[in-house]
Task: structure prediction
Amino acid sequence: MASESRLRIKTLVMVLAIVLCANAGDLLLKKGMAKIGPVALTPQGIAHAFRLTVVSGTIWLAIVFLIGFMACYMTVLSWADYSYVMPAGAFGYAVLTLLAVVFLRESVSPRRWVGVVLICVGVLLVGQTKPRTTPEPTEAVARCA
Amino acid sequence: MRVILGLAVLILGSTGGEIAITYGMKSVGEPPRLRPRAVLEFLGRAVRNGWFWAGIPLMAVSFYALLVLLSWEPVSLVIPSSALSYVVGTLGAKYILREDVSVARWIGVVLVCAGVVLVAAG
Result:
């Protein structure tokens, strides 16, 4: 039972890290690309934009967050179910909507609020289930070691 | 027709890639502790796993399909449609990864999918 709650806590921590890294990465990428401006879809235009992205600190910071996202995602999938982690990641949509209302004072349509509520209820329902339902092959290895 | 084909590539590519990576990570086994060194060692083993390298190109193809779709159709159609990947991913988890998807988890996934459609559609 103790290991069950430990499993839940470490999965929750990793899911929060995934949501944080993915959203921070996307927002920084958006900010960095907005600074660069519209990219002309010609070979010269793309090459020019590429040179600007390589020297942009914001873009590099975005890349660091996105690598962090991938590392956390891979790590949590080493013990938790894919069908547990994947829907839980959608919680980011709800967080982004709340951030947009609180910090950017954006107006949010009733349809979008219904969506946020559905996501939160869905994530809570998935969160109630066991994080891992497949057998643990590492147990045998751990016992041998 | 081409939009449906594009969406199929987008959804099957991303879920196929993630399922391959999940399979790989389960076979690598979890890090013994969540300390930076143990996690880095785990990631080192993970990127040497063949399933990881099967998953990455699938996800790249899916990303390319997303860019192509966005050049054909408005974002308000493409992103809500891609929410179908929650259901397809859960089917893959059940039948390929042999995860035990309970009724509660199914209801949760369907609610999340519907919620993402509504949020993405604005």
User: Anything to note?
Assistant: The radius of gyration of chain B is 16 Å.
